[in-house]
What we know:
Layout: E1 3-5, H1 9-19, H2 25-43, E2 49-55, E3 60-66, E4 70-76, H3 83-89, E5 94-95, E6 97-102, E7 109-115, E8 123-127, E9 130-131, H4 135-146, E10 151-159, H5 161-170, E11 176-181, E12 184-185, E13 191-192, H6 198-203
Parallel strand pairs: 1-11, 4-5, 4-6, 4-8, 8-10, 9-10, 10-11
Antiparallel strand pairs: 2-3, 6-7, 12-13
Uracil (URA) binds at residues 130, 132, 190-191, 194, 197-199.
Domain Phosphoribosyltransferase: 5-205
Organism: Nibricoccus aquaticus
Keywords: Allosteric enzyme, Glycosyltransferase, GTP-binding, Nucleotide-binding, Transferase
Amino acid sequence: MPLHVLTHPLAAHLVTHLRDKTTEPATFRRLTHQLSLLLALKATHDLPTREIPIDTPLEHTAGRVLIKPLVVVPILRAGLGMVETIVDLFPDVSIGYIGLERDHTTAIARSYYCKLPPLEGTRILLVDPMLATGGSAVNALDVIAQRGGQDMHLLNVVASPEGVRAVEKAHPNVPIYAAALDRELDSRKYILPGLGDFGDRLYGT
Length: 205
Ligand code: PRP
Ligand code: URA
């Protein structure tokens, strides 16, 4: 499945301010919400709809409504910063949670929490701002697929080529939506140029 990198100039503007090391957590959170909105719109552009009859104040006509249930699954903790926007856009969305934490020395993700709603027949938006080695995303997609999830879409703010390759290898049918595709990983598996530790910057830790 192709990688979709946002091309809207607003996305580049927002990512640039996110990268800036002087950006404070309050602004960082607002920028994350704005980027999540752009990513969510892109990742749902093909949602199925059904025609329904409707009466406007002036005449009888036809409209279209969404028919596929939506599930958003943030990878804790940084993914939480992307959820509120999606709930605002799609108030009926169900929310699952997957807790994964990278080991600081090995960069391997360790699972510490998982709670998912029914997934069958739904469009699943897995949200995690950073796709670095891809270990966290692949782990989460594995779990979602094991629980019956099929129509999975991955939303990242910043992706690395290594992470994209890892997801494409393990889950070739999962489209990846990213606001930026960065150059590479450093020796500690941080994304370059990147923006540092997303969770720490989001929560001021
Ligand atoms: C960060 C980020 C991703 C993961 C990406 O989370 O939010 O979940 O790293 O790295 P990977 O692609 O190499 O797996 P982290 O483990 O630091 O936890 P946090 O969200 O609690 O800060
Ligand atoms: N997780 C982050 O928060 N930042 C990176 O650069 C890599 C993983």
